[in-house]
Here is the input.
Amino acid sequence: MLRPLLTTAAVLLTLTACNRGQTAPGTPPPAAAPDDAPVGERLNLSEDEWKKRLTPEQFHILREEGTERAFTGHLHDHHGDGIYRCAACGAPLFDSKTKFDSGTGWPSYYQPIEKGRVAEKKDTKYGMVRVEVECARCGGHLGHVFTDGPAPTGLRYCINSASLSFQPRAEVGKGKAKK
Ligand SMILES: [Zn+2]
Here is the structure.
């Protein structure tokens, strides 16, 4: 009698755990794809190597901390279902489920796709104190994070379109990610 009872209990526990993982508010979405470089792995290339990989606009924004003009990027009014990757190294950065229309003219998200994917650092350029965000894998400049975003985080990750590439959800995990 004991064994079936234990099995039932184990199944129930597993189900409960799964449900909790899916419904907890504010829980970051799971890692984008099993073949992605793990959180914490760095990609260090020389500036010459980046120049070969990136367009002049991407290089200016990602490697020289530039900013594209508002409403000019290819993703500020983009509403596809999928994930947004670093245009330089392909690391997953944001999920479309957290994208919102901020009206600023830049793609805006209320949280990164996963803890450890987006790094923050203080930016005091132009006489302002802002928090710069960059790709934690390659150090590419993405944009800034502000504290006037919507629930559940109250954060607004204001990102340059040129720093991102979009991958439809159906293609996630099928080995098409740029490495
Ligand atoms: Zn990157």
Notes: Residues 86, 88-89, 91, 135, 137-138, 140 surround zinc ion (CB under 6 Å). The chain has one domain: 43-171. The first helix runs from residue 2 to 23.
